[in-house]
Amino acid sequence: MIGFGTVGQGIASVLMRKDLGLTITAIADSRSGLMRDDGVDLAGVLERKRGGFVVGDVGISPMDVVKRGEYDLLVEVSPTNIQTAEPAATFIREAISRGKHVVSSNKGPIALHLKELRRAALSHGVQLRYEATVCGAIPIMHVLEEGLRGNSVKSLHGVLNGTSNFILTRMAEEGLTYDQALAEAREMGVAEADPTYDVKGIDAAIKLVILSNTIWETDLRLEDVVVTGIDQITPDAIRLSEDEDATIRLIAEAIPERGICRVTPRLIPRNHPLVVNGTLNAITLTTDLAGALTFVGKGAGSIETASAVIGDILHIKERYARGA
Amino acid sequence: MIGFGTVGQGIASVLMRKDLGLTITAIADSRSGLMRDDGVDLAGVLERKRGGFVVGDVGISPMDVVKRGEYDLLVEVSPTNIQTAEPAATFIREAISRGKHVVSSNKGPIALHLKELRRAALSHGVQLRYEATVCGAIPIMHVLEEGLRGNSVKSLHGVLNGTSNFILTRMAEEGLTYDQALAEAREMGVAEADPTYDVKGIDAAIKLVILSNTIWETDLRLEDVVVTGIDQITPDAIRLSEDEDATIRLIAEAIPERGICRVTPRLIPRNHPLVVNGTLNAITLTTDLAGALTFVGKGAGSIETASAVIGDILHIKERYARGA
Fold first, then answer.
1. Catalytic annotation on B207?
2. In a mutagenesis test of the B interface, which of A127, A149, A170, A316 is the best target, namely the one with the most B β-carbons within 10 Å?
3. B245, exposed or middle or buried, with CB in 10 Å at 0-12, 13-18, 19+?
4. What is the topology classification, in CATH, of domain A141-298?
5. What is the interface pTM, i.e. ipTM, of the complex?
């Protein structure tokens, strides 16, 4: 496992309380690394991390672990770098070239290099999965692969950024200004110190790129998405929307047939399934046979994101593990 | 394929317009049957059915097809008989004993005999799938099997009956009485001439039994579900709920830890994800890791239900077909 932040710690705590037949043989973060072929002591690692100590040996880097570690599957949960996707992209390429499966929660490599990484995985006979990169706990990738066989997806609409949705919800519920709602989001840990990616719609656009490229096997880039954020929304605009029994939500939408791929605040009837509150995420797929299907769930959170990563690991374990 | 009503015709029309690599070698309904090892002429069969003619040879019964037909997989889409599950249960048992996979949209056999049929399928090395029995187009069974690996489901709450939901929606939107809304539902083809099963909560209870027995591998029976319908709901009750920014929905819920298994009208905040309008279905699963996940989609319809049946067929084809 590369990366030991919120997601990595979530995975470790789940594995400590549930026996899922998985062994973590190495962990590395940006400060240190640890390799134990018979299984890392997760309780000890979590305790050191939470105490502010290094988790392993400062002489062992993430690249050492990726290159020399004994493992069947790389769990790549290091922080997203959306400019270069590095160093995560290199870790993933390296693991694939060693014939290792990869599960990632890292939006950088998947948004920037999905086609290349998929091709590499295919040619090395390994699996690459990334359920956790979009919509947190919602198993949207599994639904796309498994649940909609026989269907063609015509379009997708989603509330893909929990921070923006929280701010819009609070503005509507309490008549707050954008700045007041953002301040509240920061206090509650829902918004980061620099909320630019979230409130400017960039995070939602990244997820839209990942979903679109997955569904339609396109090679869409972040620059191809038309993006408007929520930071110009006024309390007046929200009050006016409420007069029509509607509200404003930051909607990511892709409709290939009409050449539409954008993230923009939209007026939506309050009783529409995409109108979810707080930090929830929601996604609607419009299909040719099953009609419109909407999925709602937590878009972030340590254990929720860990759930998506673990779902991917178990999927690979069941179907592709040696001897399975 | 046994049964050629709404679902069967939906399947036939999808197979006519999409090449999914499937061949229907026999069709039978209560009036006649037809066997063509190289593939039934679906256009002709649909035309005869829609013209009110028999689809095949009146000398060929469904049981003839099940027992003597050449097929890999039985598609059982005949009408539900919730008292005895017959004759569908016998067709399914017979097909399984012949070593054939089974996909069914028929709630009778699955609600009454799931454990027995599963065991039979297991011992004959075949698959039994029934996505279409609950929540129409929502791929809830696939989500349970594939999307929530590593999770334990703690409870489920659902709006599982589209007719009741339509009536409650119209009562709230237009201030109609129950009888007025029911009359409208009948006119629109949303309610049957005898709406008892829908409005008394029995249809929802049947689906709750199927979902519960699938998730928790229990042996729950319809009699174990506490059921209250919507036919006693007054416009006053709905008006009162609206004063609290809530509404009334017929909720099916199962919480095994608390011994709860019931279908009953409940007051729910209007912004709750389960508050869907019209004939939509919705289901919330509460899990230990992924938190609460809600799925919304069309609960009925010819093509939507066909989508669920076809998804099951393709699932089996990809993984278990001879030579796959």
1. yes
2. A149
3. exposed
4. Dihydrodipicolinate Reductase; domain 2 (3.30.360)
5. 0.94
